[in-house]
Design brief:
The protein has helices at 3-18, 22-26, 45-55, 107-114; strands at 29-37, 40-43, 58-67, 70-79, 82-93, 96-103. It is an alpha+beta fold and 115 residues long. The protein has one domain (3-114): Roll (Nuclear Transport Factor 2, Chain: A). The chain has a six-stranded mixed beta sheet.
């Protein structure tokens, strides 16, 4: 997959999430998706999307970089009314998102839960 096509796949996936179209978003993801984030990990696309449906995140993309089948997205994510600057590293295999690693400072979310 070209770097431009890899970027477009990720942008289409994020657009579907922003529209809350989880059925469409699921089409971009491999069944055995591996997710690793600041607040936990998930194995398998079904478990991941159950969380996504519950959280209903909003993404405001700032920058997208691609290198081969790796795509890095810098974005603001709104989670529980908290704005978080986030980095997502997406790995594409066979035309689908196979893994996603997300990095952000979780302190604002944890502080909100503690309140």
């Amino acid at each position: 997959m070209s770097e431009e096509n890899a970027k477009q796949l990720i942008l289409s996936y994020i657009d579907a999430l922003n529209r809350q179209d989880f059925q469409m978003a699921r089409r971009y993801v491999a069944d055995d998706l591996s997710f690793d984030g600041a607040l936990g990990s998930r194995q398998g696309a079904d478990d991941y999307f159950e969380d996504m449906k519950r959280m209903r995140l909003r993404y405001d993309i700032k920058k997208v970089f691609a290198s081969g089948d790796d795509v890095c997205v810098l974005y603001d994510v709104t989670l529980s009314e908290v704005l978080l600057f986030t980095c997502g590293w997406y790995r594409i295999e066979a035309g689908k998102i196979r893994s996603l690693k997300v990095i952000f400072d979780p302190r604002p979310v944890l502080a909100q839960k503690a309140a």
